[in-house]
Inverse folding.
């Protein structure tokens, strides 16, 4: 089986090799500082005893899992610490597929490109449900697609790339659909700390043996390189997920987990609120400049991405390359996220030069 190289890498490589200055708004790599407590925890770990430099428990450091379980009001035995949300998603989707409960995976359109990639890798068949113009998801459309061949429903809230936040009623309906068809709902909540709407509520508040919640600290603590995420599985699925995790990865990084644990225990809510305030300012500045460019755009209720559409300039890979060469701004082509927004271009607001990038776009168009 052949896998397509994610377009993220192609665009980033093209921007890196450009002959001019380029504002990189391709990937969701935060540019802001992690919590000071995370740095402190890593420094402290450097002086640990030699036994602390060896393998940690495969499912994650016990203390970290206990901290997560207490915060999320779940049993510690349900928590599997993973190599970022990427592995957490893989474990959940793989568990859904290995139950002989169907071979179809329902995804939204637009969609984070790694979900269909994992679907192909797991030999599943993707079924796409279009979201509404504002990015919201109508559960009735999911119900229309779902069948006894449905193994898994994957949703991301707050959403990349639309910025939509799915409310509790939507998540309750999705869990109910999963239960009706013996499927697993995989709720990817990696942007849970970036809700600007006040509507976000974790799927963990919905008790069901048919839902798995995955997330990571990559975005919330601005540490995408640390690769510390986790999944919360129902009791009936956690043992199989832990075994697959052990066979694929053996375990995760001990110093990264220790640093995250120290940060969780010693970082107050102001850190996250200050980050959200900064992002709100970026969103305002970027969308104001898009108004000047005459663009249509989405204003995110969550996460930190903006989709923009420019007249007679569809979101193809070639046009993204053109913007890099002629405007000095790198975004992601809408066609990378499916067919529903293939006229659009996605910009990640993870650079202090976001306002400058928008001004360049306004000048260009």
């Amino acid at each position: 089986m052949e896998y397509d190289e994610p377009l993220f890498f192609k665009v980033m490589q093209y921007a890196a090799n450009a002959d001019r200055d380029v504002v990189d708004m391709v990937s969701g790599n935060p540019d802001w500082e992690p919590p000071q407590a995370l740095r402190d925890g890593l420094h402290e770990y450097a002086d640990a005893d030699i036994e602390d430099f060896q393998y940690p428990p495969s499912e994650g450091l016990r203390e970290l899992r206990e901290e997560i379980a207490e915060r999320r009001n779940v049993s510690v035995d349900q928590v599997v610490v993973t190599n970022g949300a990427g592995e957490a998603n893989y474990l959940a989707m793989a568990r859904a597929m290995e139950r002989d409960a169907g071979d179809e995976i329902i995804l939204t359109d637009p969609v984070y490109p790694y979900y269909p990639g994992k679907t192909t890798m797991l030999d599943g068949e993707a079924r796409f449900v279009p979201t509404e113009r504002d990015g919201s998801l109508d559960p009735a459309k999911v119900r229309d697609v779902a069948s006894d061949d449905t193994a898994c429903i994957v949703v991301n809230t707050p959403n990349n790339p639309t910025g939509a936040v799915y409310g509790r009623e939507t998540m309750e309906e999705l869990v109910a659909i999963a239960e009706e068809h013996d499927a697993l709902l995989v709720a990817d909540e990696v942007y849970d700390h970036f809700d600007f709407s006040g509507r976000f509520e974790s799927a963990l508040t919905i008790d069901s043996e048919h839902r798995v919640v995955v997330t990571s600290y990559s975005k919330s603590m601005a540490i995408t390189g640390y690769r510390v995420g986790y999944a919360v599985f129902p009791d009936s699925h956690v043992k199989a997920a832990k075994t697959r995790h052990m066979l694929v990865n053996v375990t995760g990084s001990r110093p990264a987990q220790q640093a995250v644990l120290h940060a969780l225990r010693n970082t107050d809510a102001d850190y996250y609120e200050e980050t959200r305030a900064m992002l709100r300012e970026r969103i305002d500045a970027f969308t104001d400049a898009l108004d000047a460019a005459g663009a249509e755009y989405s204003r995110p209720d969550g996460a930190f991405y903006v989709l923009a559409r420019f007249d007679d300039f569809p979101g193809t890979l070639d046009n993204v390359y053109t913007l890099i060469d002629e405007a000095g701004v790198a975004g992601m082509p809408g066609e990378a996220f499916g067919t529903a927004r293939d006229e659009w271009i996605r910009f990640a607001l993870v650079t202090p030069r976001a306002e400058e990038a928008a001004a360049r776009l306004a000048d260009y168009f």
Summary: The CA atoms of residues 122 and 212 lie 17 Å apart. The first helix runs from residue 7 to 16.
